[in-house]
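User: Structure please.
Assistant: Input sequence and predicted structure:
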Amino acid sequence: MSYYDIDAILTDAQKIPCTFELAVPGLGFLDENPGGDIPSAQPIPTPLYLAILLAIQRLSPTSSPLASIDLPLSLSPRVLNALKADPRTVDLRGLEVNFYEGAARVLEVLEEEEVGDVLVEVCRPCLVEDERGKGGNGKRE
């Protein structure tokens, strides 16, 4: 990822559900409540870059993370089932502008093997089709 990569910037700015494990005073602007507090155990749409930082940050080596990341709607079970059935029927760009890049960033933090497996299976036909469009035979050597 490059510092000036516009796709990376847009991906990191998209909001995903993040559940704070403790109440946070003065951070209410994330929940459209300027000057307010964020209560614990409430999912708040948070920019991806901040959600990742909060999910890995701990107050002490033995404490739990400050927040947990929930799967975004673009990776919900409903979407994953539709992708398993027929990936061509799902408008990935309509779900998330940078679908694959956003999913990869979320999967860096979450350990969701099923989601990763589905994304690989969805991506594979697209790559083969793209290769055929470029004059290749679609087979790996």
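DSSP finds six helices and three strands in the chain.
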